[in-house]
Structures are given as structure tokens and as C-alpha cells.
């Protein structure tokens, strides 16, 4: 059985924005380039990547070929990679170069070893209310995530989250399904069209305490 990919919000990607901990997203993928930064430490070709640490760089790529954008050089009539921020690691030079190592294997943007997950196509805010303690927590989640995966996110706020029954409008939620599959629809577009404040209409999930406590 194929393992489900892990989804990340743009804000999660943005939190990895140092040379020692550098993530980027592109074409729906999230990649941890920290090993690349370590391998080529001190190389000037890392600068364009460092400038975009924690950001989405889909505009660097052709969505059809999944490769770096290309153009035809008007002077040489040769096809070149389009890198307006400057050439970066694994992009070949425009001309003959004695220090260019062509034996790099897969360039980093094609190397699946750097991939840590997928970027959510749409994130949502939910309100989780503990009916036992009246504690309330706002949580940004990925629309592709199941309730079980959302629970994993919530564990840092309540390590006993599995000891609760998750409900919405009186209905017990299926933890193997997404919010939408549980009937908790994303009304953001409709709210925007009606010029209503999204924050007022954040859906609330109620946690009802069970008898047993799971280990923290």
C-alpha cells in the first residue's frame, strides 16, 4: 500500500529559512535543501537559492517539463536555462568552463531524495474546542489532510488528543476522512464574494472527553 504523502502549509515552509535549515517549494513539491547547502557550503552558486529560502520558486520552472525554464540566446542561437536571479547550483554554465563538473547525477530539482512532502493547494483554519477544559485552539491545516493527520498537528497542544471524540455539529467525525469528506466544507470563496469576514465563520470542532487517557 502506497504511503500517503505529507502535506505542508506555506507558513511551515517559510519557517525553514536559514542556510542550515533551508526549504523551498515548487510545482507543488516541498524540498529540504539543507544537505545541498552543506555539500556546497561557500559556493557563490548557492546565493540565488539562499535568497529564496522558505519561499515558493515555481516561477523558476516549466510546469510541463518540470525543468528549469529555458530560452534561446539571441547571440548564440543556443538554448539556455533562464535564471534571472543568476546561475545556481547544478545549472551548467553558458559556455565552456574548465571547473564545471558535468558528472553531478540528477540535478537537485529532479532528485526525489530532497523531497519531504507536498505543498497544500489550499489551507484552512479550524477552531478546536475542548469541551472538558473550554480551551480553544486555532489551527491552520491542509485541506488534503485527514482528521487523523490534523490530530497529529494538534498533539503539540494536547498530548491526550486521542482520548477525545471529535465532533462537528453533533456528528462524530471519521478520522480517516478529510474535513470536506466529513461535510465541513471550505466556504472561503463564498465568504469573500459576500465580503464577509472569514474569521467569524471558522468551523469549530468539539473534543468530547472519553474515559481513558492515552499516554502523552
From TrEMBL:
| Coiled-coil portions | none
Q: Which family does it belong to?
A: Belongs to the cytochrome b5 family.
Organism, per UniProt?
Answer: Xenotaenia resolanae
InterPro entries per the UniProt record, alphabetical: Cyt_B5-like_heme/steroid-bd, Cyt_B5-like_heme/steroid_sf, Cytochrome_b5_domain
Q: Which UniProt keywords apply?
A: Cell projection, Cytoplasm, Cytoskeleton, Heme, Iron, Metal-binding
Under the heading Gene3D superfamilies, the entry gives: Cytochrome b5-like heme/steroid binding domain (3.10.120.10)
Q: What is this protein's function per UniProt? A: Radial spoke stalk protein that binds heme under oxidizing conditions. Required for the coordinated beating of multiple cilia maybe by functioning in a redox signaling pathway.
Per the UniProt record, one Pfam family is Cyt-b5
The name on file for this protein is Cytochrome b5 domain-containing protein 1
Amino acid at each position: 500500500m502506497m504511503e500517503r504523502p505529507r502535506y505542508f502549509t506555506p507558513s511551515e515552509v517559510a519557517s525553514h529559512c536559514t542556510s542550515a535549515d533551508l526549504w523551498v517549494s515548487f510545482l507543488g513539491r516541498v524540498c529540504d535543501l539543507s544537505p545541498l547547502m552543506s555539500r556546497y557550503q561557500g559556493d557563490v552558486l548557492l546565493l540565488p537559492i539562499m535568497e529564496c529560502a522558505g519561499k515558493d520558486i515555481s516561477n523558476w520552472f516549466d510546469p510541463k517539463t518540470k525543468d528549469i525554464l529555458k530560452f534561446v540566446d539571441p547571440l548564440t542561437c543556443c538554448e539556455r536555462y533562464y535564471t534571472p536571479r543568476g546561475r545556481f547550483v547544478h545549472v551548467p554554465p553558458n559556455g565552456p568552463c574548465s571547473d564545471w563538473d558535468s558528472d553531478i547525477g540528477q540535478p537537485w530539482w529532479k532528485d526525489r531524495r530532497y523531497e519531504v512532502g507536498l505543498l497544500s493547494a489550499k489551507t484552512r483554519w479550524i477552531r478546536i474546542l475542548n469541551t472538558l477544559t473550554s480551551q480553544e485552539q486555532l489551527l491552520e491545516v491542509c485541506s488534503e489532510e485527514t482528521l487523523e493527520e490534523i490530530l497529529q498537528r494538534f498533539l503539540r497542544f494536547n498530548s491526550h488528543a486521542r482520548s477525545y471524540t471529535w465532533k462537528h455539529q453533533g456528528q462524530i467525525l471519521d478520522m480517516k476522512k478529510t474535513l470536506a469528506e466529513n461535510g465541513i466544507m471550505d466556504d472561503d470563496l463564498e465568504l469573500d464574494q459576500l465580503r464577509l469576514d472569514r474569521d467569524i465563520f471558522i468551523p469549530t470542532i468539539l473534543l468530547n472527553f472519553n474515559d481513558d487517557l492515552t499516554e502523552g
